[in-house]
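User: Before I run my own analysis I want an independent prediction to cross-check against. Here's the chain; please return only the structure tokens and, at the end, one sentence I can use as a sanity check.
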Amino acid sequence: MAESLLDVAGIGNAVVDVIAREQDKFLDDNGLTKGTMTLIDLAEAEALYAKMGPAIECSGGSAANTLAGLASLGGTAAFVGKVRDDDLGGIFRHDIRAVGVEYDTPAATDGPPTARCLVLVTPDAQRTMQTYLGACAELSPGDIDPKLIKRAKVTYLEGYLWDPPEAKKAFKKAAGIAHEAGNKVALNLSDPLCVDRHRTEFRELIGNHVDILFANETEIVSLCEVGDFNAALQEIRGLCDVAVLTRSDKGSVVITDSDIHILDAEAVDKVVDTTGAGDLYAAGFLFGLTRGCDIPTCGRLGGKAAAAIIGQFGARSEKPLADLLDF
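Assistant: Structure tokens:
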């Protein structure tokens, strides 16, 4: 019996999020820059964790959050990412499967432990992330299953995973398989620091391997090395088929070869935690795209999914996002 098609196969960091509410003073006392993601080593991760208050532990990672959101909307998804055969690896595997996402990447039996992201949420709902990559940085081309990639309408790549050389090879292998099968490839730039480290390589990847680009305002300005967002719009046009650019409370802009769609932000009663806003926007957009919706509808779905997630604590929806479809 043939395996069923998937909407999206995502490749990214398999991370367990450890989320805690903290005051600004905690960030200052520990020399942390609010609103950014910083890579740290295992010793730093253990030292900071010891100082944190009560926390929630759940499977996370940018691409994994997007796939969880897609599944909550009623889509089908599979995740590729590396964990170790330890307690946190078990948490990750259980949680992502429990939300309806396929996950069969074999766990490493030696080497670094499972990755964890210490997420500090301040009263203004900003999240500051300190990430130890651990086992997820060990992803290699051998972890890419061609049968899985061929099943997916879209293969979604997480920019956070671009650092390790073997992961870069895995991305390009997956992109090649997807295109040979006539499917699409999407990339999320993930973070301005990722863009700063890999600007030239990202531009090459987008120009040669990516059909759909996701980025926020800061990331796209950095990628294009221009002074403002409007200049970046002109620079990015034509580099890929679709560029999806999010702008927080200013909404989003989606650029195609023929059109520029400007979409207002969706209303939010109260912003509780901005963790996962970009990830969930991508989930909504890809859900619409894989169902043949037009670009404005895809953007509205993305905006609604993002609005839902920032009104709660954490990057996984507390209620089925399928409720958002009636609009």
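Sanity check: The chain has eleven helices and 14 strands.
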